[in-house]
Amino acid sequence: MKHLDEYRDPALARQLLAEIAAVTTRPWVIMEICGGHTHAIIRHGLDLLLPPQLELVHGPGCPVCVTPVALIDKALALARRPEVIFTSFGDMLRVPGSCESLAQIRAQGGDVRPVYSPLEAVNLAARNPVRQVVFFAVGFETTAPGNAMAVQQAARLGLDNFSLLVSHVLVPPAVGALLASPGNRIQAFLAPGHVCTVEGLQDYEAMAARHRVPMVPAGFEPVDILAAILLLVRQLEAGRARVENEYRRSVRPQGNPAARQAVAQVFQVCDRTWRGLGEIPASGLRLRPEFAAFDAECKFALGEIRAEESPLCISGAILRGERKPPGCPAFGKECTPAHPLGATMVSSEGACAAYMLAKR
Question: For residue 54, what are the CA distances in angstroms to 47, 48, 183, 230, 322?
């Protein structure tokens, strides 16, 4: 038996669905924070199999999607410079800025290169000493350790031609902002499994207690997600609000101490603007002053850039859990994977992309 078979077992999934239906006595609204959960839910049709009283809403758990247009425009400005090799994970390349995307600049001759690791960008800088290599450091707590290690490696090698354009965001402050919003309907959360693998459970335990909402970190297979939903519904029905760890094979209460230490050595907490949510205090990471030489915004004096999204795009409401992709008038019409209006249509974790792939 393959390791994943048990997490995709149809009989076990049906059993969990029956248990969920048996314990659900009233309407509940559950948000999955992570875009990986959104894609799994839509791909396997789990939302269509749950009792009608349960509503799953999608959250801001796609780091590509919450990167503001202004920061993407800064990336575009860097990628146009002839002395720059601009590197990024592939899912950022087709995300539109104000006028174009990194993929379009690449097609026009810009030196834009997709990489699988920030250490690839460090190696590029070592091999190309007369070029400036910039890595687009986008992500939640999950990717921050790798980017921290890249800066540490560049510092050890004495590379003055490597830098990061940083767009790191932190999940707990965004969850707090959603819960504090006037129109909040969210009553429980599927917590992000990979983020909790790095950061542990402490922040989520504090939020569950403060806001009286159950939270369950979950894996990304159908049985994982259904088991987590069952734990959440049991808590909701019983009036409890605490963290239960469904993803025990990956998540430990203390997280990954080595990864957390690397992040703390290189980054510090800062305010950050999120697409769709606005500025959230203490919701991001920036490089510490001792690593300012590796900060692309400072190195290239990018300054402030103001940008607006397409007025047809409702990705902000989708990221806040207020709307779903099929409710967007542009969905599948003016906005398609080939001609996206927003990041949620092209990111590998975007909600609109999930619905398009499932042909919903």
Answer: 9, 10, 18, 11, 15
What is the SS3 string spanning the chain? CCCCHHHHCHHHHHHHHHHHHHHCCCCEEEEEEEHHHHHHHHHHCHHHHCCCCEEEEEEEECHHHHCCHHHHHHHHHHHCCCCEEEEECHHHCCCCCCCCCHHHHHHCCCCEEECCCHHHHHHHHHHCCCCEEEEEEEECCCCHHHHHHHHHHHHHHCCCCEEEEEEEECHHHHHHHHHHCCCCCCCEEEEEHHHHHHHCCHHHHHHHHHHCCCEEEECCCHHHHHHHHHHHHHHHHHCCCCECCCCCCCCCCCCCHHHHHHHHHHEEEEEEEECCCEEEEEEEEEECHHHHHHEHHHHCCCCCCCCCCCCCCCHHHHHCCCCCHHHCCCECCCECCCCCCCHHHCCCCCHHHHHHHCCC
Output the pTM of the full model.
0.93
Beta carbons within 10 angstroms of residue 103's beta carbon: 18
Which pLDDT score is estimated for 309? 78
Q: What is the mean pLDDT of residues 229-257?
A: 97
Quick: pLDDT tens for 49-89.
Answer: 999 999 999 999 899 999 999 999 999 999 999 999 999 99
Q: Cβ contacts of residue 83 below 8 Å, gap of 6+?
A: 131, 132
CA 166 vs CA 39, 134, 254, 267: distances in Å: 26, 10, 26, 10
Answer whether residue 303 shows pLDDT above 50.
yes
Q: Which residue type occupies 230? A: L
